[in-house]
Amino acid sequence: MNSLNEDTLIEGSRWLEATDPRFKQVFEITGPLALRHKPGGFSGLLGSIVSQQLSTAAAKTIWQRLVDAKLDRPRAILKSDDQTLRAVGLSHQKIRYAKALAHANIDYERLATYNTEDVIETLVSVTGIGRWTAQMYALFSLGHLDVFAPNDLALQEGVRMLAKLNTRPTPKEAAAMAEPWSPWRSVASLALWAFYSQQSARAQ
Q1: Are 102 and 42 in contact (CB under 8 A)?
Q2: Other beta carbons within 10 Å of 147
Q3: If you count DSSP H runs as helices and E runs as strands, how many of each does the chain have, helices first?
Q4: Are 152 and 132 in contact, with CB atoms under 8 Å apart?
């Protein structure tokens, strides 16, 4: 299975330019896209749970406490009482999510062989993991090439800027507009995130 790497990032970027000429302007602004990768497995998903609704700095602090306390593995989470997990900064809700993930007993090596929709279906069955988190795992941890998360506000804004729309598209509209970018929607997503970020910085 092909995955996101330096070569496929270039291949996908060229394909998008040829298929949708609007991406030529995007790449003129963003320059070559940066390859982004996040850890996979239990710790990768636990990190996503920890970071929900927190600033990057706060999430990083709590995550480091978990690592220092050796609480970043399923067995350690299951053996720990709520008081211990609260002490490192997890909320009551996130303790429930962390334990649900540990109880799920996901075969992460096997998960890495699944197609994108099967990855998402497996992950969203776990309490505390929504579709967006599952999509980000497929894209950034597994390197799937054709992931687009229409509920992502930054992607919606990127699509709005690309299409020169007056209003932000709905998730359904954004998903429909992204369909022609398949099988390279992950590369399109990286391009639109970078495009939105740079255009927003210019506007400030």
Answers
A1: yes
A2: 23
A3: 13, 0
A4: yes
Cβ neighbours, 10 Å, residue 83: 8
pLDDT tens digits, 127-159: 999 999 999 999 999 999 999 999 999 999 999
Domains of the chain and CATH, by start: 6-37+146-203 (1.10.1670.40), 41-141 (1.10.340.30)
SS3 content of the chain, % helix, strand, coil (to 5): 65, 0, 35
Q: b or e along 69-80 (b: 16 or more beta carbons within 10 Å of the residue's beta carbon)?
A: eebbebeebeeb
The dihedral region occupied by 31, where left means phi > 0, alpha psi between -120 and 50, and beta the remainder, is: left
| Three-class DSSP category at 188 | helix
